[in-house]
Amino acid sequence: MIVERKISTLRLLKVIWKQLAMMIIISSIIVIPMMYFGWGEYAPDMTAPLILGTAISIFLGFRTNSAYERWFKARELWGTMRAWSRNQTLLLSRLHEKHINHNTGKPSKLAKTVMHRMIRRNIAWIWVLGRQLKDVPPFEGVRALLTDEDYAVASDCHNPALKLLFLQSRDFRIVQGEGQFIDGEHFEMVAIQRELVAGQTACEGLKNTPFPTHYTYFTNVFLWLFLILLSFALPGLENVGLLAIPAVVIVGWVFFMVEGIGSYMEEPFDNNRNVIPMDALARSLERDLMALGLGEDELPDMILPIEGALY
């Protein structure tokens, strides 16, 4: 997610230079012969470019809005899952308390071990899920949060994040058997597990349902057709002349920038500058749960922006 207030012109040119170069070449091939061979009088009027430009504007507006809705939906899902993860830790944490078995009235060493493991596994889950969605190695930098058994089981699974949730359910039943929940707390734990599974499923569904390919394809076709028509029509206007070339490039740049914004935002889980900052959000959650749920003093550093963007 881009957090810088000013966007670097150089960085922007690295993204759009191919489109700019193509627009200059196409408009020059059309405009220069029309001007030097006196073909300007045969140029079509501006009716067709204006109608097509209006249609493309509506087309791009819908695309950009739809892309933003996908991006914001992904951000809402990630925020909801962080909230449920915190709620789970609220129920599991016994900081400055003893892990009393409410059935026997005695401390439970097993419950202490398992509940600490569940909190750390919860942190690992949000990291692993984010890395899965970005198609990068899921356990990079997460290994220390998991036991050897958990890592061996999850790393051998096609969906490691979901496997971690299954392990959470197993340990929940162990903790429930140790009498750790009272007054319906175990029902709350079941509800939290259900919401975490639903959140992961929604994220996977959003990632696996890309923006329609034909929509992107025909957007580009219509844009280039519009610029070609504009290159033919502008030289016929009075006092335009060779200024038609920069005019076409400027108009095309505006349209392609709007189209580019939509194309980047429509994939909120891709590993680029425009994604949901899953790593930064996971690190924030990790610090909270380790400090407030486990009472640890040495916390990992916050993730800072890289070249004006959070990942």
Describe this structure in words.
This protein is mostly helical. It folds into 2 domains: 9-69 and 223-265, no CATH class; 74-209, no CATH class. It has 9 helices and no strands. The protein has helices at 9-36, 47-92, 109-133, 148-155, 160-177, 185-207, 213-233, 244-265, 278-293. Helix 2 (47-92) packs parallel to helix 9 (278-293) and helix 5 runs antiparallel to helix 6. It is elongated and about 100 Å long. It starts with 8 loop residues before the first helix and ends in an 18-residue tail after the last helix. The model has no long low-confidence stretch (mean pLDDT 85).
What's the N-to-C terminus distance? 6 Å
* Rg result: 28 Å
Q: How large a portion of the residues is in β-strands, by DSSP E?
A: under 5%
**General form:** elongated
Mind describing the biggest β-sheet? none
Total number of beta strands: 0
* Secondary-structure-derived class: mainly alpha
Topology:
Elements: H1 9-36, H2 47-92, H3 109-133, H4 148-155, H5 160-177, H6 185-207, H7 213-233, H8 244-265, H9 278-293
Helix pairs in contact: 1-7, 1-8, 2-3, 2-6, 2-7, 2-8, 2-9, 3-5, 3-9, 4-5, 5-6, 7-8
